[in-house]
Predict the structure.
Amino acid sequence: MDISPYFAKMIKTHDQVVVPGLGKFYKKRSEGFYDEETKTFYPPSTIIDFSAEYIHDDKLVQLISQDSGSSLTSAYAALDEYVRDLKSILKSSPVVLPEIGKLSLVDDKILLETITEPALNQSYFGLPSIDLDSSSFKGEDDAKYSLAQQALNTAVEDDEEDYTGKSNTVKIVLMVIFIGVLGALIALYYTKPEVYQNLANYFRKNKTTVPATPNTNGIDPNAVAKADSIYDTKDPDSIEAKLKAQGFEVEKVKDSTDVSVKANQLAKPDGFRHEIIIYFCKSEKEAEDKVKFFNNNGIPAHIVTDAGGVLIKISGATLYNQQEADQELERIQNEINPQAYDLKIKILNNKK
C-alpha cells in the first residue's frame, strides 16, 4: 500500500505530518532574499523540511484508516511495512515523495531535498519575484502606452483633484453656516431673552413623549388582584365569603408550588465491566506514553490489563451498565476517536 500521497495531504491541512518510525515533514518559512547574480528579489515563501525528531501522534494513521475504510490496526500495519521498505530502499538509492521532495541517506542520516510546489511551498502573500533588469521595473513600459491611454490617465487625475476640491469647499460652507446659526442663537439669548424663552417653550411643547409602559409580561394587574381576592375570606365581597354565607363549602385551590420530586434511580449493574477502547499499542512503553498523553489532554485513559489479545488496549472510560456505556461510547466516538468500541468483560462474583 502506497502511503506517501497521505503525507502531502496532511501537510496541506495541518502544515505537518508525523510518520511514526521515520520522522516529521513540516512547513518551514523561507525568508525573502536578493539574488546578486540574477539581480532579483524573491519574496518570503515556505519549504517542506524533514526532522528525525518528533512527538508521536496518530493523525496519519487515522487518516489512512478513514480513507481506506480499514481498521486502525490494519492502518498501523500498512504504515509500518511502508516505513521498513522505505528505509531499505534509502540504503541504495534516493526516494522521491510526491509533492514533497527527494529523500536520501547521507552518513546514516535522512535528508530531504525539497521541490518547488506551489500548492505547498508558496503560501506567503502570493507575491511574485522582482527582476531589477525588467522593463516594467525600470519604467520603460510607460513609453508603450498609446496617446489615448495617456490622455485618459491625465483626465482621471484631474477629475480626482476637482472632486477633492469640491468636497473641501462644501465642508467649509457647512461649517460657516453652523457657526452663523450658533452665533445668532447666542446673541438672541443675551439681547432678547424673552424671545429665546418663547422659542424654547415652543419646541418643548411640540416634543412628543411616549409614556413608559410597565412590563407585566402580558398580565393585567387588575385581573391578578381580582383573582387573588376570590379566596380572601376577610373580604366580605369575595366569592368565597358570599358562598359560605349561603351555606356552601368552598374547596381551596391547591397551591401550584406543591410539586413532588422523584429521586433519580441509579442504573443497576448488568454483570459486565464496559471498557470503552480508544487506542491500541504494540508495546507496554508505548501504551504508558499514550496514557500520559491522553491524561495531559484531559482524557482519563488507562491500560486494560485483562483485555486479552496481542495488542495492548487503552480505555477512555469504565462503565457497569449497558445504557451508560452506550451513551459514553457515542460521546467518545464523536469527540475523541470514531473507531472506539465497547469491550465487555465479565465480572466474576459481581466484583471488578
